[in-house]
């Protein structure tokens, strides 16, 4: 199956989760969503990642993002593992964890990289827009826990650039200046950014982030 790419429609699926059965497209309809895989239940890095995601519930909610974890373990394992997350991370799981023992989600999203491991997923993360298109994908190996501050940062960029004809520079954080995209002429920019901008090069125009 060809790899899913940015701009592709996020595949739909029906699965069991720790919050009950879902059809993915129904529950994400009109919302931003994050779907992220972790290789295996009852493993140390995954335990910290799920705890961190639960701690960031309000941050995801403030951005209107619905979060879903997935692993190729069965629902009974997920349910048994939840207690460990609470015990060790000090926070209860507060988002649905998808059980994918037949790997239909992992396969549809290309989360299994056979040269890394032919049965477990890597740490894939997809940000999906309200139009159900993939806006961003990030992949980490099993041994490296993700930086969830970076996940929130890229969501801020994706949501801003979806609304305005701007791009965000290296290491940008919400509230910092942005770049007017080259497709916008200076004439158009005068209307869109009446407060003005700084031209460092004709193709590099810096402007305060639109509200
Ligand atoms: C972990 O989450 O700690 C882990 C999972 C699979 C392989 C290596 C580490």
From TrEMBL:
Q: Which UniProt keywords apply?
A: Antioxidant, Oxidoreductase, Peroxidase, Redox-active center
UniProt keyword Oxidoreductase present: yes
Thioredoxin domain: which residues?
4-160
What would you give as a GO molecular function for this chain, any one?
thioredoxin-dependent peroxiredoxin activity
Main enzyme class:
oxidoreductase
EC number from the UniProt entry:
1.11.1.24
Q: For this UniProt entry, what's an example GO CC term? A: cytosol
Q: Where is the active site?
A: 46
Annotated PROSITE patterns: THIOREDOXIN_2
What CDD domains does the record tag this protein with?
PRX_1cys (cd03016)
Which Pfam families does this entry report, sorted A to Z? 1-cysPrx_C (PF10417), AhpC-TSA (PF00578)
Q: Which GO terms describe its biological process?
A: cell redox homeostasis
Which superkingdom is the protein from? Bacteria
Q: Please give the family membership noted in the entry.
A: Belongs to the peroxiredoxin family. AhpC/Prx1 subfamily. Belongs to the peroxiredoxin family. Prx6 subfamily.
NCBIfam families, per the entry: PRK13189.1 (NF009668)
Q: What is this protein called?
A: Peroxiredoxin
Task: Name the source organism.
Answer: Roseibium aggregatum
**Taxonomic placement:** Bacteria, Pseudomonadati, Pseudomonadota, Alphaproteobacteria, Hyphomicrobiales
């Amino acid at each position: 199956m060809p790899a899913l790419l940015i701009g592709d429609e996020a595949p739909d699926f029906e699965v069991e989760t720790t919050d009950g059965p879902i059809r993915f497209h129904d529950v994400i309809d009109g919302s931003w969503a994050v779907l992220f895989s972790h290789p295996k239940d009852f493993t140390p890095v995954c335990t910290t990642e799920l705890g961190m995601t639960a701690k960031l519930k309000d941050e995801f909610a403030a951005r209107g993002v619905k979060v879903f974890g997935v692993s190729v373990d069965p629902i009974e394992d997920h349910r048994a593992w939840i207690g460990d997350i609470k015990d060790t991370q000090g926070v209860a799981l507060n988002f649905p964890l998808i059980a994918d023992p037949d790997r239909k989600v992992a396969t549809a999203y290309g989360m299994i990289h056979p040269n890394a491991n032919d049965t477990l997923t890597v740490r894939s993360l997809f940000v999906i827009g309200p139009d159900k298109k993939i806006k961003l994908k990030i992949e980490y190996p099993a041994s490296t826990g993700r930086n969830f501050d970076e996940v929130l940062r890229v969501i801020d960029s994706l949501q801003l650039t979806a609304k305005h004809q701007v791009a965000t520079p290296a290491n940008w954080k919400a509230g910092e200046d942005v770049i007017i995209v080259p497709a916008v002429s200076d004439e158009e920019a005068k209307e869109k950014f009446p407060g003005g901008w700084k031209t460092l090069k004709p193709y590099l125009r810096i402007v305060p982030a639109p509200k």
